[in-house]
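Changelog-adjacent note: as of this version, every example in the card shows the full chain rather than a window. The one below runs 202 residues end to end.
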Amino acid sequence: MIKNGILLISVLCLLSGCVAPDRAIEGSTIDEQPIEKLTFQSLTYTWDESSSVSDLNAISGNQSTLLLWVGASCRGCHDWTDMLREGIENGSLEGISVVSIHRYSAFEQTDDVLARYVGNDSEYPIKWPMMLPSEDVDVINLDSGLTSDSDLYDAFLNPSTPTLQIYHADGSIVPIDHSYWASWEELQDISTHMGLLNSGGR
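Full-length structure tokens:
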């Protein structure tokens, strides 16, 4: 029993860290087949450490938003967070809307996530909202207004970390194939595509 317990803890620790998705490739590819239109509410922090319960669709407003699924110990997540922040701060990603979503609420502590991402004293400070949903959060179908039959992770295409997705204003989700480590070329492609979407182009 002790050996089995140690094995389980080891597996959970591995899952909560850096998980390189099988679909990650060199060069970003955006799948233009949006699926179910969804939202959820969760505790959300902003860069200045203030918090509130917020709705993903309300946060995105009337524009396409880049979702970044992260873990506290995920080095690829740290890398993408740094590149996004630097691009926003230096103006090269001007106008891009970003929301980070914590992936591992079952076995990563909120304090660890905040220490990594929230506040000027954090290790990889964000300049956008950070959502911390629980695993059993209600996912709402925006077409029906009813709770979806899918849980959070199934509804959002089983994201690993890091995972980038485009979340449209109507609540539909578009997956992005991307590399595990941050790539400026990929990020520029994604930003350009999102700029076209938000300006009414395709």
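Structural remarks: The first strand starts at residue 29 and ends at 30.
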